[in-house]
Amino acid sequence: MKTWLIIIGLVIGYHVLAQNIDVDIHLNIQHTVGEVSQFERKKFINLHASLTESDWDGEEDKLKYILEDLDVYLGRDNGSLGWNMNQSTEDPENPGFVDPSYMISQGKYVRETVYGINNASRHAYESRADILVGGQEKPFWPGQTTTPYTGNPGWKITSASTSGDFMGQFFNEFYRNDGEPSSKGHPRPRFMEIINEPLYELVDEGDHTPTEVFEYHNEVAAAIRTHNQNILIGGYTTAFPYFDENNFNRWDERMKLFYDIAGANMDFFSIHLYDFNKHHYNNGTAFHGPINFKGSRIEATFDMMEQYSQLKFGKVKPMLISEFGGRDHSIEWKEWTPIRDWQFIKAVSPMWLQFMDRPNLILKTIPFVVTKAEWGRTSVPYPWRLMRQAKEADGETGEQWVFTEMIKIYELWSQVNGSRVVSKSENPDILVDSYVDGNKAYFIASNLNYEPETIHMHLLGTDSNTLLKVEVKHLHLAGNSPVLDTNTLTPDKNMTFTLDTEATAIFEYTFDQELNTGESMKETKYYADVYKQEIVSSAPQVFHINSLTLTDHNQATLRVAFGRAHTLSKKPQILVNGTAVAVPTNYRGDDQHLRSQFFGMLEIPVPDDLLKANNTISIQFPDNGGYISSVTMRVYNSTIEITGPTDVGIKKINVNADIKIYPNPTNNYTDIVIPEELMTGSISVFNTNGVALYNEKITQKKHRLLVSKYPAGIYLITIQNEKYIGSQRLVLQ
Question: Where in this chain does the record put each Beta-porphyranase A C-terminal domain (predicted)?
Answer without folding.
Answer: 543-636
